[in-house]
Amino acid sequence: MNFQLQKLSSGLRVLTVSMPSLESATVTVWVKTGSRQEEVRVNGISHFLEHMVFKGSKKRPSAREISEVVDAIGGEFNAGTSKDWTNFYIKSRAGNLDTAFDILSDMVLNPLLKSEEIEREKGTIIEEIRMYEDTPMYRIGDVFEQLIFEGNSLGWDIAGTEETVRGVTRNDFVNYRNIHYVPSDILITVTGGIKEKEVMELTEKYFQELSGGDKPHPTGQNFQPKQMAPKFKLHSKKKEQAHFILGFLGDGRDYKGRFAQSILSVILGGGMSSRLFLEVRERRGLAYSIRTSVDRYQETGYIGTYAGVDTKKADEAIAVILEQSYGISSGKFPVSSAELQKAKEFIKGHMALALEDTKDVSTFFGEQALFLPDILTPEKIFTRIDAVRVEDVLAEAKRLFVPSRLNLAIIGPYNDTSKFEKLLR
After folding, report:
1. Which long-range contacts (C-beta less than 8 Å, at least 24 apart) are formed by 324-327?
2. pLDDT tens, position by position, 359-381
3. What pLDDT is stored for residue 425 in this prediction?
4. Residue 411 forms beta bridges with which residues?
5. Burial class (CB in 10 A: 0-12, 13-18, 19+), 399
6. What is the set of domains in the chain, with CATH numbers?
7. pTM of the model
8. Which candidate, 394, 36, 375, 367, places its Cα nearest to that of 219?
9. Cα–Cα 20 to 30 A to 335, which of 52, 63, 127, 404?
């Protein structure tokens, strides 16, 4: 799968992936900013702005007018906000590429940001925050990152708090856009049944008014890990089930051992034949859902295992996860060649299936183009994965699975946390 990356005189970059056999195309506008770039007073403004872009633009002054024109081409449109990027996309028939560019450029470059719409949307976002608070299997990720990134903007919630959302004004949006919505921090990805020449012509046509040059922007507080001992955080809530993430402080996006770490996470808890799925769910019946994954930001990350368990059996599940993690690093539970090969094929297979969708192709290349010095095609990633040896996986396990990197966050109806703290020690 090949890509082309070009840079316009304004500093705006355009990445195209032509997939001639497809009838669809996804146009995505990426902005290299998220909650970690915010000021604490307006925490959540990146996510709030994502909502406001859909509320009316210069050509289409209302949410209804925007949605009607997307529906008229049978398109799908949405947006997303993370801790370090925001994106907006339209997926449609490739023959409607001009319309997709027209809609997206108008929404992103010319949002009306009406004061009355801002006040109305505050209620919507506050209800979204409350919804996540009442959904522990989603909320636990925020609680865990509050713990592991304590004292840094990476630990802030993407949606902000009810207080910060209520305090956002139209001027805050204008100032934020002036800082971050500039060509040097914007990337356009177009994937699917498209031609590069047409994409570049449409980009010039619809994004020519974008200005701001290559001025640097705040990148958020750089995270310098200082953890020396295990850390624990309880988010007390009366629920029938306990939800927790047990994770170890890891590495950033460009870490050279990231492929070995991905394989390690699959061996531990990636799939229905993984060690933790078999030990925690199948053999002990402690959880319905359990999975291990690696999450990365620019300079840091973590490998973490999520589980939802009976409140009376959370400590037993945690003990099993710790035993399996330390068992790999100590050699008590060695990784076999067959297990290594199965994990490699698991990763490659899931990636291949995902990349059949133009939206996922956009995400695959877009995040790399935003944050990494080199963009790897799927074929190059497959080669890197195939090159990982058992000893590489073991080396990462020994480095990561140590008490000084250990963190546990849990949501549940607990008052006495001593049994959890004892397990970590």
Report:
1. 324/268, 324/275, 324/276, 324/279, 325/248, 325/268, 325/397, 325/401, 326/401
2. 999 999 999 999 999 999 999 99
3. 87
4. 235, 243
5. middle
6. 4-207 (3.30.830.10), 231-424 (3.30.830.10)
7. 0.95
8. 36
9. 404
Q: What is the rounded distance in angstroms from the CA atom of residue 342 to the CA atom of residue 340? A: 5
Task: Count the residues in the chain.
Answer: 425
Q: How far apart are CA 415 and CA 253, in angstroms?
A: 37
Residues 230-245 pLDDT 10s: 999 999 999 999 999 9
Residue with the two structure tokens 């002054």: 61
- Give the model confidence (pLDDT) of 91-123 as tens digits: 999 999 999 999 999 999 999 999 999 999 999
Res. 6 pLDDT band, cuts 50 70 90: very high
Predicted pLDDT at 137: 96
Taking CA atoms, 148 is separated from 224, 228, 231, in Å, by 12, 12, 8
Closest to 37 measured CA to CA, from 296, 224, 220: 220
Confidence of residue 225 (pLDDT cuts 50, 70, 90): confident
